[in-house]
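I am still getting used to backbone structure tokens and would like to learn alongside you. Label the sequence line and the structure token line clearly, so we can match residues to local backbone shapes. Would you write everything just below, so we can both look at the same thing?
***
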Amino acid sequence: MEFQSLFAMLVVGALAGWLSGRIMEGRGFGIFGNIIVGVVGAFLAGLIFPALGFSVGGGFISSIFHATVGSVMLLFIIGLIKRS
């Protein structure tokens, strides 16, 4: 993996984690936690969206969208686990 792709993945993960923290009303985990949530959310969305037949195309904006939706799903699941 090249440095540029790793850097892009971290930037997309950070943006997606920050956006998902805003969407889910302050459930963010700080900068490093947001990066992890964003990257895991992008992986989760990468597994779920193709199975559902959902695609928004390629590019930076669609990567952020996919990762944000996956991160919101992940934060929702974490919230359910914390409540029980």
Residues 58-84 form one domain. The longest helix spans residues 60-83. The radius of gyration is 12 Å.
